[in-house]
Amino acid sequence: MIFAAINIFGLSPIDIQAKLFFMEARKWQIAADYVSGPSNLATVATSSATGTIDWGPGATGKFYATGSDNAYATVTMAIYESSFYITATSFFAANSIPSNSVINGIRVEIERNASTAGGGTFIDGSVMLIKGGTIQGSDYAASTTYWPVADATNSYGGETDLWGLGWTANDIATESFGVAFSVFDSSTTAASSTASVDDVTVIVYHNAPPSVATPILYGGNAITLSASTTQAVYATTTITDTNSADEISTVTAVFYNSSSTEACSASENLCYTGAANTWLGVSCDWLGATTSATAIDASCTADFWFDAVPTDTGDWSTTLGYATTDWEVWFQGTDVANATGAATTSQELTTLSGVEVEEIGIDYGTVLSNATSTTGKSITINTTGNCPINVNVSGENMATSALSIAVEQQKYATSGDVGYEGLGWTASTGVQLLNLDSGKTEATSTPATDIVYWAILIPSAQTAGDYSGTNTIAAVEDTIDW
Fold first, then answer.
1. Residue 398 belongs to what domain range?
2. Does pTM top 0.85 for this prediction?
């Protein structure tokens, strides 16, 4: 009986770390009145989209409804007449509200009064918001409340009232956001009366989003994979919420090659995303206690398969263009008001030449002296790294007790099961590079594969016995053809 065992050399696994993340966040509010000073005089105007009577006829009085300073915008009307809109805009400067804030509510406060001359009785005609330069949303006119004789402020909307509209910070922190309101004279007499507006204030309630510190990916080192299996690739960060760390509700992460984005679809070659404990999913968790009252550390881990594309300057990665990319991790922290913050960082992923031989050896069976083994002796070589491979082949003499058969009596080739004489390579104790044509593994379920055929010639007069030896197969990156 003649048996050749197979030694297989690829990169061995390295240590794995895994952790997974997390929890909560609360809303906070900011109030701002950017129409209280002379720098905003030009942001008040009128619109004839409603009513028939303009404010401050023949004068510029309508421009004084900025600041509680007893400088009024006025309109004089009689029975059942309605005023134009006053449109007040540019309350908030660009970027004055963090762009990823969640808007929870908007409150409008209008300071106004009305004369009683002639029995005039004024009520709100319309009170609406201006979004993108268009008057829209819910109309909060207090149509049953008379305007007071002395200055008093009435409030509209509130801390959790969005006026029937969806809002982003950028919708509000712009000159196209504002308030439009008009007044109606519900008097039953023909005498003229005057309505006056002293000040218009807007308060926006929004949630400060959490902030995510620049993550640390794989301990700040290049990512190395494990042949034939997965490697835990982890990243850590600190997430801060100015309200309280207890208000940070969740953390998510996506690991992806920078040829794509964090919105990528799960792929063992290019993208690890999705729920924990799912194929190609990402697990996240707390890392111990909170860093401070407002911050907590988190870790996210993905199990990278051995075929994830390399980004170093290997032959395959350079030729395919991946050497100009890297692997990134995208962290997002979310608070209880669904406000989010995000950050990314990147690392190289190194080339891994991995090989797996499906058979445990080559069983040549019983072979007579001066004869060759039968056809059908082969090994299946799977590519279990992230680049195409060739293999270095070497061997040792086959032996039994004090007898041996020289390793050179074996021959091998990838060209087909053509018998001993048709095989092109003679085995040797020295390393010989065998060119494979299998390419890179793109799916671990169907690894790139090549077949190597083997045969042996037993010398004449060779003493019978059970001979065994070892042939060694070691993976090297294929730089010849793929």
1. 2-10+353-477
2. no
